[in-house]
Amino acid sequence: MEFTVETDAELTTVDVTDRIAAAVPDDCESGTCTVFVRHTTAGVVVQEDEPRLRGDLESFLRELVPDEGHAHDELDGNADSHLRAALIGSDVTIPIEDGDLALGTWQSVMVVECDGPRTRTVTVTTVGD
Questions:
Q1: Which CATH class is domain 2-66+77-128?
Q2: Mean pLDDT of all residues in 103-113
Q3: Is 113:13 a contact under the CB 8 Å cutoff?
């Protein structure tokens, strides 16, 4: 299953938990759900969906990877986005228990946009036991 995510800023997060949960087939009682973003300048994380923490994550990525001074910038000016996405990773795998995503109380699945605004494609694959 695939869906798209519209982002509205260069560096931002979008909660996609409900869309991922809806992709779990009704007959899948246990297994795994893999969420993959098909882009080299975006990633996926499991993290708390709290506005201040989301802002902290964005600030952390900006501090960790400077906006300028990278060789790839000579090509298209977005090396910082590629490096931030490489740190985040392009996929997460979540257990399925009793037909639901086995996320902790405060856990959400979020797409992290590093080169927006853009339209991103997210792929969800489930495997049942």
A1: mainly beta
A2: 98
A3: yes
